[in-house]
Design a protein that fits this description.
Layout (H helix, E strand, L loop, with lengths): L1 H36 L11 H33 L3 H27 L6 H29 L4 H8 L9
Length: about 170
């Protein structure tokens, strides 16, 4: 029984930690985006714009990849573990939107270094800013439906107050 509690604590605590780390990466992307676009006038990042852009693209691809290959799978598994069929059905619609958004992020990455003028770069940065805003909203909805909604149950399971999520 003690092993079961330890496993539950590792499972649910691990999901929260994974999400927290991923959200920290999101914050880092936003900080760099603001630095590139001039929104952050107080920023200390004085690297050349091209260096920032390369770093931003790498962070963006890493972030998007982590979402698809780690986070979303964990969130979906959590929905299944708690038999939340309604949330799982709704999440499929969100995944479809996120996939289209991912394609726009990857297109930005593929095309950003071929931009031929400052105005093209400004326009591309504006579009990726809108894309990121949409993405973060969709991801927040997923986290809310498939993780935060089960927080009490996960805490109870981790604390050994309930023994199973049986459906």
């Amino acid at each position: 029984m003690l092993e079961g509690c330890k496993s539950a604590k590792e499972r649910w605590g691990g999901v929260s930690e994974l999400i927290d780390n991923w959200l920290n990466e999101r914050q880092n992307i936003l900080v760099l985006y603001c630095s590139m676009t001039g929104i952050d006038q107080q920023g200390e990042d004085d690297r050349p714009l091209l260096d920032k852009l390369r770093n931003f693209c790498q962070m963006l691809v890493d972030y998007v990849s982590a979402g698809h290959f780690e986070i979303y799978e964990q969130l979906e598994q959590e929905g299944r573990d708690f038999c939340d069929n309604e949330a799982l059905a709704l999440s499929q619609q969100l995944f479809d939107h996120i996939q289209r958004n991912t394609n726009r992020c990857l297109d930005f990455n593929d095309n950003c270094e071929t931009l031929s003028s400052v105005s093209d770069l400004q326009e591309a940065l504006s579009r990726i800013g809108e894309t990121l805003e949409e993405r973060f909203s969709l991801e927040d909805q997923l986290i809310s439906m498939l993780h935060s909604a089960h927080g009490d149950k996960a805490d109870q399971l981790a604390a050994g107050q309930i023994s199973s999520t049986g459906c």
